[in-house]
Amino acid sequence: MTDSVGIAEIRAAARRLEGAARVTPLLESDTLNVIAGRRVLVKAECLQRTGSFKFRGGWSALSALDPAARAKGVIAFSSGNHAQGVALAAKLHGAPAVIIMPSDAPQAKIAGARGYGAEIVLYDRRSEDRDALGATLAAERGLTPIKPFDEPMVIAGQGTCGLEIAAQTAAVGVAEADVVICCGGGGFTAGAALALEAAAPRLRVRPAEPAGFDDAARSLRSGRRERNDGVGSSICDAILTPQPGELTFPVMRRLCGPGLVVGDEEARCAMATAWKHLKIVAEPGGAVALASVLFRREEIEGDAVICTVSGGNVDPGVFAAALSDYGDAP
Amino acid sequence: MTDSVGIAEIRAAARRLEGAARVTPLLESDTLNVIAGRRVLVKAECLQRTGSFKFRGGWSALSALDPAARAKGVIAFSSGNHAQGVALAAKLHGAPAVIIMPSDAPQAKIAGARGYGAEIVLYDRRSEDRDALGATLAAERGLTPIKPFDEPMVIAGQGTCGLEIAAQTAAVGVAEADVVICCGGGGFTAGAALALEAAAPRLRVRPAEPAGFDDAARSLRSGRRERNDGVGSSICDAILTPQPGELTFPVMRRLCGPGLVVGDEEARCAMATAWKHLKIVAEPGGAVALASVLFRREEIEGDAVICTVSGGNVDPGVFAAALSDYGDAP
Fold first, then answer.
1. Does the interface ipTM go beyond 0.90?
2. Count of C-beta atoms within a 10 Å radius of residue A302
3. Which of A87, B100, B154, B156 qualifies as a cystine partner to A118, CB 3.0-4.6 A?
4. What DSSP letter does each residue of A282-301 carry, written as one string?
5. So what CATH class is B7-53+151-326?
6. Quick one: closest CA in A to B275, which residue?
7. Smallest CA–CA separation between A136 and chain B, in Å?
8. Can you name the CATH fold of B55-145?
9. What are the tens digits of pLDDT across the range A273-303?
10. Do A319 and B275 touch (CB under 8 A)?
């Protein structure tokens, strides 16, 4: 694999993903537009294979591997969506996959990764050293690690979503707008930003994060990679990363607008809004971009905004509780 | 308006719908395919404007009206989805719309139709004569009635979904299969059947209905329009019609395969399945086709099946209860 990523790698990934990943729809709701006070175009990555955009990066990485390395297999750390993306991409390539997941990851995500045929190794986040566990397994079996965001082929894969956003946004007559992306380590954010720089330079990416895990927003303000203090908690399991990536942050710093930060209750309300007006399933971490559109309206400029719903893998009880609390909201 | 409908009217409706209605995606889930024992392609009409396929028929009818008649306005009877489809289509045409709805229709549907700017007239299904009420209003104000299914321009509009199914199914390599359609009065079923007869003749439409309201299945067996006894009840509010339409049944009889019938609990389970594996919101009546695919597997032939999720307008409590009961099913 290469050490750098740019539009050439993203376009190459798009060619590899053709026929494997889904071109997800750009949705719009007449009622949501009224509620949000501007036109809202929603890139529904929850409708991607495995229920999140992570399949793009997983497929991109697997398909870029040397065949001999691929035959030995891959290993990934993930609380869930990257796990499922890598697991299905590996299965479809006929490659073994080992996924190391925290034992308290959402059951839906553990079951999903297992259902795609991966070997799941659970570890206790409080008492076990994930990296040591992974290094031992990788060395013993000759597995190639597929990192969740600081990996050029993964960033290139997520960037293919940016190419689709450029084409689909142009098709509905929007040329200039903010593109709000649910942000963990920044693979999706950086990949989309690189794609849009080339394909639709008047679309500006902005990361959205949960309060307490707003490392990207703070890093963009200070100009260097800031860490979260690791003290708080959030329902947004998919995007709770300690700090922006080494590869992703320089891209974000160069190309992204200011970060947007929302609370857990705002994310839960956005889950209900996506259910009611878009008829799609958003998981908490996949709803922070829409929550930003709903609750940080004054921090966004323009008559239109694009936002991602980045994933929909959520336990039924968590979803039903969000509907119970916010299903009667407008 | 014309009294007959065929492929020419459907293609004309498709041209009128271009840029107004959405081309909804044909979804597929790797996990759902395993569960269902064959490839399942899901036409997600819940992602249509107003949350159901009914916007197609509403727009088709409004756009086909004589401008003078349109300026006076339209009137529709509906428990909900047709109401919203006609209401939004009228609003976008600048035409007044009066919608007569039963007072016990789902709140989400009443609020939706009102939100699109229609004048809502509620009536008591037990004590008031809906037809007399409508006739009086129509005469007083010169409104054109837009019937929910026995109306050529409405059937033509619903048929545009069949044209999309033909193209999207071919694009994923499926040429011969059953197409299971959630069926009330048969507008969607007949429209799709006419479209597929011309555009993909090896795709055969089959209606899906809830038990106790299986008039289409029984009519297809007997060869004449059978009525439901009207005694039972069902959670599938969108498709509880007394009998197939006068215009729709001859088309169904000529073109459709045997009907499929599922129970309410099977429909509720399918709602949870659509939520979990497809990440879309299905209302009870919009889930009967998927329920047929899941629970009437032996009545369907072939390696692949297409099914519609025809709408997603459901009250949050009904949805949360389905998740609570069936969210942990495979």
1. yes
2. 12
3. A87
4. --TGGGHHHHHHHH-GGG--
5. alpha beta
6. A281
7. 31
8. Rossmann fold (3.40.50)
9. 999 999 999 999 999 999 999 999 999 999 9
10. yes
